[in-house]
Automatic annotation (TrEMBL), chain B:
It is a multi-pass membrane protein. Belongs to the binding-protein-dependent transport system permease family. PANTHER family: INNER MEMBRANE ABC TRANSPORTER PERMEASE PROTEIN YDCV (PTHR43357:SF4). It comes from the Bacteria. The chain crosses the membrane at residues 12-30, 55-82, 94-114, 120-141, 187-208, 228-249. This is ABC transporter permease subunit. It holds the Pfam family BPD_transp_1. The lineage of its organism: Bacteria, Bacillati, Actinomycetota, Actinomycetes, Propionibacteriales. Its main location: membrane. PROSITE patterns: ABC_TM1. It comes from Nocardioides jiangsuensis. InterPro entries: MetI-like (IPR000515), MetI-like_sf (IPR035906). It is found in: Cell inner membrane; Cell membrane. The keyword Transmembrane helix applies.
Length: 351, 261
């Protein structure tokens, strides 16, 4: 099952649909994942991320559509015959087995002998940094350790596809960051095709090769993190990923007028006439000016940069990102001029 | 340390109270069964347990019945309940209802209702007393169901089985190696309750004219009171020993786990 690019396999989800009663959990999902690539699936709660992953793992059947791995249709292959490793959102270590037995379970199912299981088990435990915990039971481990064992257990069988369903959502912020770096490192090291489900955009943008944004059982856009952020293709993506200001705009040809500035347009914008420009905080510039177009409402300090919220005269509230040095001069009430940097923006139909 | 002192006194008092509640009848039984007519002590009545052919046959019968009932119950209930939990959660209510049903039906009604079935069982299978196993399996269902259900609710059976399946385990492995070991305590208590129930069962056996332990004890009570009391005491002691052994087995497993750290 190995492909020329490495030990990972190509995965294609072809028009997957799944209904639960009247709920369309998946509604024609198309997704192609390159061998060895790490894709994060991002989306609001209930958009079908888990359902997609479960269908991929064979734990759920699709009403329509196919799952292809390395070009082969595996829709009818049962879960235990698919070459995939999965880490679940809920803790899923077998309580009656030690860490090492847990990690060796998949190998045992494949008929690997005791000795080799042990060697391989210790190897992957080392990889996730838990070599010294091998004789413990799940209830003696912290949540982060349990999820790392679960990761090791999934990796031990050297699956061609690794599936991670919000493996970090039960953990606190610090452990999350640490563990996601570790997951990325391990994934790069072993080169498995990986699908990482999360509803935390920071997590998705930080570790994935490409991020797919889902909504209502469909894929809205899939792109590398930078592109997704800088060039969102739909309003949903622009608003779901990162902070966005909504400003009135007038489209004319390939540019738009926003706050008396001319900015280029992204693909997918309205062709002409009035619209709503979705502008990132870092694309807004703020400078003190007594006859400006806004007044500072509040500031929040984020470290080297700050967010400054301004009330536009006769318009909405906007958030701009400035250096903290500049923000220090912008006490609430200061008159300022807010303008838009000439980076491309998405303009969507108003309303 | 006043509260803890009061607490300790209360605890000891309660323990004594319950101890007396259980032990006094047992001691009285022991006392009565070891008296002899002259006012001295003798073990005659206890020796009769093995000497009296009817009684020892009845003991063996009841033990066999207990064994078969536990076996039948486990084979019927454990896979069914696991399967329902994992694959057809919609059927949970139905299975629960069916399993609890025997509780609501008086033994007399069961016997009358079963007469027809049993004439066929006797005709097709055999008319051995061991055919009581079929009724007893039904009779122990409610208690066994509760015990196993509680254990199953204590683990995330669905996630564990999905994890095992994604690692390559088939359904037999999932049930035998993943779920059952984690509900072992529930399976054990189901087995124990069943044994205790079968050893103490009188009504159905008597109404169907089969001789199990309790029926023979009752008969003996009319002629050989001492022996019948000795047999009752023996059955009671056996059940308590079994209970302690089982709880020790459960604790032993856990202790072994903890010791590894
Ligand atoms: N077994 C089920 N029975 C009925 N409805 C279901 C079932 N599983 C999922 N759904 C529904 O399908 C939709 C998608 O669910 P899914 O679990 O895939 O969401 P998700 O994107 O993983 O959300 P979250 O981020 O909260 O985990 C939801 O509306 C959910 O209510
Ligand atoms: Mg989910």
């Amino acid at each position: 099952m190995t492909s020329p690019q490495g030990p990972g396999a190509e995965v294609v989800l072809d028009g997957l649909s799944r209904h639960y009663g009247s709920v369309h959990a998946l509604d024609g999902l198309h997704l192609t994942i390159e061998p060895g690539e790490m894709v994060a699936l991002l989306g609001p709660s209930g958009c079908g991320k888990t359902t997609a992953l479960r269908i991929l793992a064979g734990l759920e059947r699709a009403d329509e559509g196919r799952v292809l791995v390395s070009g082969q249709d595996i829709s009818d292959v049962p879960a235990n015959k698919r070459d995939m490793g999965m880490v679940f959102q809920a803790y899923s270590l077998f309580p009656h087995m030690t860490v090492l037995e847990n990690v060796g379970f998949g190998l045992r199912m494949r008929g690997v002998g005791q000795r080799e299981r042990r060697a391989r088990g210790l190897e992957v435990l080392q990889l996730v940094g838990l070599g010294d915990q091998r004789d413990r039971y799940a209830h003696q481990l912290s949540g982060g350790q349990q999820q790392r064992v679960a990761l090791a257990r999934a990796l031990a069988v050297e699956p061609s596809v690794l599936l991670l369903d919000e493996p970090l959502s039960a953990l606190d912020a610090k452990v999350r960051t640490q563990l996601r770096e570790e997951i990325r490192r391990v994934q790069m090291e072993v080169g498995r095709t990986t699908v990482f489900v999360t509803h935390d955009q920071e997590e998705a943008l930080a570790i994935a090769d490409r991020v797919g944004v889902m909504s209502n059982g469909r894929l809205e856009q899939i792109a590398p993190p930078e592109e997704l952020y800088a060039r969102p293709r739909t309003r949903f993506v622009a608003e779901f990923v990162g902070l966005t200001n909504r400003l009135d705009a007038a489209v004319d040809g390939s540019t738009a007028r926003v706050l008396d500035c001319t900015v280029p347009l992204l693909d997918g914008s309205v062709a002409s006439g009035p619209g709503l420009a979705l502008v990132r905080p870092e694309a807004l510039e703020v400078r003190p000016e007594s006859d400006g177009n806004a007044a500072v409402a509040s500031r929040s300090f984020l470290g080297s940069v700050s967010h400054v919220t301004c009330d536009l005269d006769g318009g909405p509230e906007v958030t701009a990102q400035t250096s903290s040095a500049l923000a220090a001069e912008l006490a609430p009430g200061t008159r300022v001029r807010v303008s838009v940097a000439p980076s491309p923006v998405l303009v969507v139909p108003a309303g | 340390m006043k509260p803890s002192y009061t607490w300790r006194v209360t605890r000891v008092a309660l323990l004594l109270l319950f101890g007396a509640f259980f032990l006094v009848p047992l001691l009285a039984m022991l006392d009565f069964s070891t008296r002899d007519l002259g006012g001295g002590r003798s073990g005659e009545a206890w020796l009769d347990l093995v000497r009296d052919p009817d009684l020892s046959a009845a003991i063996i019968t009841s033990l066999l019945l207990a064994l078969l009932t536990v076996g039948g119950m486990l084979v019927l209930l454990v896979p069914t309940m696991i399967w329902v939990r994992l694959r057809v959660p919609r059927a949970t209510r139905l299975v629960e209802f069916l399993c609890l049903l025997p509780l609501t039906i008086p033994a007399l009604v069961i016997v009358v209702g079963m007469r027809n079935v049993y004439s066929w069982v006797n005709y097709l299978v055999s008319d051995s007393v061991l055919t009581l196993t079929f009724v007893y399996v039904v009779l122990v269902l409610p208690y066994s169901y509760r015990a196993i259900d509680a254990a199953l609710s204590g683990i995330d059976a669905v996630t564990l089985s999905e994890a095992a399946r994604s690692l390559g385990a088939g359904w037999f492995t999932v049930i035998g190696r993943i779920v059952v070991p984690n509900i072992w305590s529930g399976v054990l208590s189901a087995a124990f309750v069943s044994v205790a129930l079968v050893l103490g069962e009188f009504t159905i056996a008597s109404l169907t004219n089969y001789e199990n332990l309790q029926v023979v004890i009752a008969l003996l009570g009319k002629s050989e009171a001492r022996t019948s009391v000795a047999a009752s005491a023996a059955a009671l002691l056996f059940a308590s020993v079994l209970l302690m052994a089982l709880s020790y087995v459960g604790r032993g497993r856990r202790a072994r786990k903890e010791n590894l750290t």
